[in-house]
Amino acid sequence: MNRRDFLKSTALIAATSTATAMDKSIHLQIPEKQDTTGNTKLIDSAPMLQNYAETSMGIAFSVSRLANGFVDYSLSPDMSNSKRVMCGGYRINDVNDEVMRIRLTGLKPATKYYYQIGAHGIRYNGYRDKELTGTETDPKVYSFTTAGKKAKAHFCVINDTHMKWTPFELCLDKVAEINPSCVIWNGDANNNVDSVEEQKTIFLTPKIKRKDYASDIPYMFAPGNHDGRGKANWHMERVWMFRQPEERLSRDWDLGRNFAVRMGDIALIGLDTAEDKVDTNPRLMGMYNSHAYREAQKVWLESALKQSEIASAPFLVTFCHIPLYDPNPKMNPGDIMPADVDDTHSPDFAVWQRTCAQLWTPILEKAGCQIIITAHQHKFRYDEPTKDRKWAQIVGGGPHMPAATSNGKAEVFPTVIEGKIENKKLKIIVHNILTQSVEAEYTYNPRKV
Ligand SMILES: [Fe+2]
Ligand SMILES: [Fe+2]
User: Fold this and answer.
1) The whole model's pTM is what?
2) Considering the chain, what percentage of its residues have pLDDT values greater than 90?
3) Which of the four, 176, 225, 276, 357, has the lowest number of CB atoms within 10 Å?
4) Residue 109 located in a structural domain
């Protein structure tokens, strides 16, 4: 062996043994003992898959006390050759007593992975009086499939769930029946939330039977106006993590909620319409900065649409909470200065978002976006494309479950909106959750790419 080969092979051995040692050290240095403190369960929720993407996956779960959480993942259902990823990022793990957030990165696109969650409990009474109290693992093996060009193009949308558990449960039963590749939660999951406990109730421990609703189906989040309200919601990333920074340019790293994800023949775009009041409205006390946020998203959107996997997708579907069009000229368009009130519009908050429409829809239209799926109005509506507006808009239903009238129809009802590819066309099915029937179906041709 010459010197160059020798150096190469020793470097390889060193790298291999370091990696092995690191893997082992994580497993060996932490005693996997039973918790003897008599405490209640350390892990007190099923895992939630957050931020569907091609090469990463966020996994969050709730803990009842101080913990250092982890995810073991594998390509095999028997968890052979599994890798362990601890919560948080560099230097110190994200040890906390509320939510474990683990990010799996470097995944293969359109690939099925199996995973298990666990956490090391920690008793902490000052830095010099701390100990591990035991390791708890959830014995169940869950799975997910990453996004990508070869992924199955099939999504569902839920919106305006507002902690109304009966319609929420019915919507999730429908989602489970459909079993899509991902779900887009199109905003207003919250009301106004001041505590992380309440946020956990919404996303991780909802008051429904299907506690593992997001353990095998990944979720995306397009926030609504209510999702930024309340002391806890000012930092919702503690419960629903931001998207991975490498999904976007460094210029856009603060835009942790926007997504541009390829799923089979569909490119999914997520935008955040932010508050439904202007920043100058005294009720917001100067605390919100929606206008600059919307402008920054315009710049992000221009770049996102040029990404090759997005630009080449036959179908382009956009999701945002507040509608970008309303047929009624009297509806408040969200740009009435300085306090959302004038003589010709009602109510005193945005029913639709003209500023976002002006910033984003010319770019989306130029890119051939076929449909924009929105929410916020709590009433299903379909706006056909016109000569001047090339895209269709669907407004999803809300959380109200009124009694149906004698003809079996109700004015308002919750919806689950399903999208899939059938015969090389995009098919959208609107499921009426009140009547448990199909409310409407639409079909779209591929855009010119
Ligand atoms: Fe709402
Ligand atoms: Fe809303």
Assistant:
1) 0.92
2) 88
3) 176
4) yes
